[in-house]
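Sample A.
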Amino acid sequence: MSQRPIDPSGPDLKVPVWFEWRGIAAKRVCSPSQLLKRVKKASAQVAEHHPTGFICVCLDNYSMRRNRGVVSAATGNRYFLKYPGLRSAVAWIKAKSPHTLSLVAFASLARWERRRDNPHMEMSSLSQITIFSKEESERERLTEFFAEVQRGFDNYWKP
């Protein structure tokens, strides 16, 4: 998608970022109560294989039942702000996981629209990237890296 090589080795994957291989630990979170536990496991997995890397979590089976509004970027922002345990996971990474460069969280929102003549489902794939590097140059490189990945994704999925 972004034309970068990907190596499917430990932790789960590794990808080059500015001429260095970085580890990626991917975890599926089926319950909000398991988020911090999964983040800690991913952090250990990255530390075991690489000096620095990324944690990616897929947030499954969580519904914001109170939020019946349209599926939008604002809805996505509220989703991540209200996801139980996400702030604790970010705080733990900042305090205890200096080798973690960023936390990438993925989720999906779906909503049935039943008021019209033709019912339909609105769906949105959400992602949130939190960059932890304290160095300005590293933050800039990571921002460009994630922008490149997004451009590749957008080009790949054009209709």
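Sample B, a different protein:
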Amino acid sequence: MDVEQLELNAPLRIKFASMDKNENLIGDAGPEYNMLFPNLSTLLESGWIATGSQKIHTRTESYNHRTWILSHENLRIVAVEHETGIEFLIDTFKDVSVQVATAAVTSLISFLWTKWRAARKSRGTNFVESTYVKETLKISPDGSKTYTRELLPGTVSNKGIEENMANALAELSNFESD
């Protein structure tokens, strides 16, 4: 998996981002990463493993960000540290059925949303509630790339996250045929 290429071209991005009411990003994330991924290799939900990876420059920032490879059987997702939250880069799934990928990834993201919110709340009142952000890559006929964005408030339930993820992954399964 080429982490830097995925950072540039991920067809699906899920972010847990600190945003104010005007959708401006707030750079207040920090200790949460060590609560999500406390070791170089951390066992997560339902057999997922997070392994520390390389540092990369993101498509919008020119300094290094820590990354983790989240893996489960043939599935791979990249998690990227940002000062405003965490981002999950999700590529199309090869050699895995849509149903298996949807169940596994939806369960993982829902689990991480719960852990992330708990880590944020453990800081007391010194944090901004995270917003769940889904960004979907759109490629126009001329080859230019843009992302469409959908925001869900920090109060969204795990059921809401799971429904949103199921829809996002259904869109992703059609990405290669576009």
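Observation for Sample B: The chain has a mean pLDDT of 86.
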